[in-house]
Model the fold of this input.
Amino acid sequence: MTVERPIVLASGSPRRRQLLEMVRIPFRVIAPDVDEHVLPAEGPDHYVTRLSRAKAVAVAARAPGELILAADTTVVLDGEIFGKPQSPAEAVAMLTRLQGRTHEVMTGVAVLRDGNVAQALDISRVTFRPMDRAGLESYVATGEPLDKAGAYAIQGLGALLIARVDGDVTGVMGLPLGLVVDLLARFGRPYRVAR
Done:
């Protein structure tokens, strides 16, 4: 039995690490250093695909010849990109706008090796339950939403905010595993369940 070399996860996200561990894809982490500002007039789909590619390219210089996986996720409401909140007050403001409504979660995924890149975009629709301001403030006070796009974590306490998900819940978490295994297969790494 041959053991495949781990892929390189170009991300500092603990959630992405957890998802790869969950499906037993061997990996090591190299966190990229990429400017994540939105460009003028840039649409959300272009934004996440551009950043996922930029993250993969940034890490490629530090891991030549290796298979690199990168992703970027954003929350979109009425065409507006909701990044990571800069303060608890901004988190409450974001959640206030999302509550009782349906928004999109877009995750761009890029796989790169030796300058060859394959990319895909996952879009899921998430509907929030209505919640009063006191409930939103108590959630923000936990600290969980402060490093999450859109100010919530579906895999944590933020699950209580959600009424419905149409799409890939792992994409909402930040790494759509179906797209990941499809892209890795293009580079000769078909998914097999490990013991």
